[in-house]
Structures are given as structure tokens and as C-alpha cells.
Amino acid sequence: MTMPTTATGAGAERRLTAGWFQRLAWVALVWVSLGFLVWVPFLYVATRRGLSSDWVAFGSFALYECVILPWAVITPDGDGDAFFGVAILVTLLTATVLLLSAVFDKKIPAAQPAYGAVMAPQGQPYQQGYPYGR
């Protein structure tokens, strides 16, 4: 058995729309994990859409994770380092802004017919002489 697929051209635009619940769920994952899983939503977007800008965003947050973990272990101040805290907060806020506004595509509303335009008939046409149907 074969499944029918739609052909996508090499230059076909891949859209990734998300409602507010999904966006807030990704933001909650970022904040609840205290930034340790900040790269996960961007990996999801990059694999689904495949744009180079999405892969750059994922790479930057993955690099952040690879730098921040050894930095937390190596520094003598540990958790008390002020620059360390500012770096984490800036990263969490940046990820939040990107996830809520810039990463997902806006939904395109369906085209509405112009006022007064003739619309195609829908369903059963009205039969004028027999009101009870058949």
C-alpha cells in the first residue's frame, strides 16, 4: 500500500503556525527548566521548517547551553556570580520574545468574498415549488 504525498518543490515555503497555547507551552518549558532546555523549542522549529535562520537560532541557544554549564561549574563564585545571573535572565527573556513573536508564522486568514459578490451554491439547492424536500 502506498500513501499519496504532495510534491514540494525545492523552493517551496514551509510554514509553521502555532496558537497561543502552544507558544505559551514552549515558553513555560524554557522558564520551568530554568534555561536548561532553552534549545528544545528552537530545535523543533528548525526541524519542522528547515530555514537557515531557524538553525542559527537553535545553534546559538545550543552553544549557550554548552558554555553556561561548564561556566557554572568552573567559576569559584558558583551561583553567586552576578554576570552569570544576568546572562541567564537575558537568554530567558530573549527566548521568550522570540517564541512569542518571531519564531512561528502568523496564521493567514481565509480569503473572504467581496461584499455583494456572487457565491457558489452550498449544499442542497432550494426547490421553489415543494417546501418539504424529497
Short structural summary:
The protein has 4 helices and no strands. The protein is mainly alpha-helical and 134 residues long. Residues 1-8 have low confidence and may be disordered.
Characterise this structure.
- The chain has 134 residues and is mainly alpha-helical.
- It has a domain at 34-102.
- It has 4 helices and no strands.
- The longest helix is centred in the middle third of the chain and has 23 residues, at 52-74.
Features of the shown structure:
transmembrane; 134 residues; 4 helices; membrane; mainly alpha
Radius of gyration: 25 Å
SSE sequence, one letter per element: HHHH
Helix content: 40-55%
Percent in strands: under 5%
The major β-sheet equals: none
Would you tell me the structural class of the helices and strands? mainly alpha
Number of DSSP-assigned strands: 0
- Segments where pLDDT lies below 50 for 5+ residues? 1-8
| Cα end-to-end separation | 41 Å
What is the count of DSSP helices, taking H or I runs of 4+ residues?
4
Shape: elongated
